[in-house]
Write a structure and sequence with these properties.
By secondary structure, the protein is of the alpha/beta class. Helix content is about 50%, strand content about 15%. It has ten helices and six strands. It has a six-stranded parallel beta sheet. The longest helix is centred in the C-terminal third of the chain and has 15 residues. The radius of gyration is 17 Å and the shape is globular. This is DNA-binding response regulator, NarL/FixJ family, contains REC and HTH domains. It comes from Tessaracoccus bendigoensis DSM 12906. GO terms for molecular function: DNA binding.
């Protein structure tokens, strides 16, 4: 069976970065570019027209910036996963994008395989953070409150591991659960915690102090 086709729109105003993205995607038959835009207004229009699975967007763009674009896109019915592309580790801007509904961040200097992995992980509903950004982004989130008292130990472990950036397969290996079971648990936790996606659940893990032991 062929791999699932991932429909991608990307928004980037730098022609050199656009060329690089096309080069990265050339050996990836499971990812189809269905549109590209050079500003946030055009990107929103493309998303509404093409209904992609993933939107890869520069966080700093003309028109709607990446945060505003993320906010507008995630308010659409059945929105795509929004993955932000950034040149600089601006912690404030990244946190704003997470709260707006972005599923994660990649750096423009990340290797091609990391970009492809990030797009595929976003398609699968997993949180995506470039390894170069994990420490600066997630550890900068202040602890706001303890976790809800009705969460069970297994649920807290799941949230903690999502907060560490692990995917469903890796979490399953840690907790001796199948990836399918992990996906089911995480989906329920998203609903229970009011999280739009795994990236927002990861933020809650850090706000609640559920960091790696």
């Amino acid at each position: 069976m062929p791999p699932s086709q991932i429909r991608l729109v990307f928004a980037e105003d730098d022609p050199l970065v656009c060329q690089a993205i096309h080069a990265y995607l050339r050996p990836a038959p499971d990812i189809e570019v269905v549109g590209e835009a050079a500003d946030g207004v055009a990107a929103l229009r493309l998303v509404e027209q093409e209904r992609p699975d993933v939107l890869l967007t520069d966080i700093n763009m003309p028109g709607h910036d990446g945060v505003e674009l993320t906010r507008r896109v995630t308010a659409l019915p059945n929105p795509p996963q929004v993955l932000c592309f950034t040149a600089l580790a601006d912690e404030h801007l990244m946190r704003e994008a997470l709260y707006a509904g972005a599923c994660g961040f990649l750096l423009k200097v990340d290797r091609p395989e990391m970009v492809l992995h990030g797009i595929r992980s976003a398609f699968n509903g997993e949180a995506v953070v470039s390894p170069r950004l994990i420490t600066s982004l997630l550890t900068s989130i202040p602890r706001a409150s303890p976790p809800p008292s009705d969460l069970k130990d297994l649920e807290l472990d799941l949230i903690r591991l999502v907060g560490e950036g692990l995917n469903n397969v890796e979490i399953g290996g840690r907790l001796f659960l199948s990836p399918t079971t992990v996906k089911t648990y995480v989906s329920r936790l998203l609903t229970r915690t009011g999280s739009r996606n795994c990236a927002q659940l990861a933020v809650k893990a850090h706000e609640w102090g559920l960091r790696g032991a």
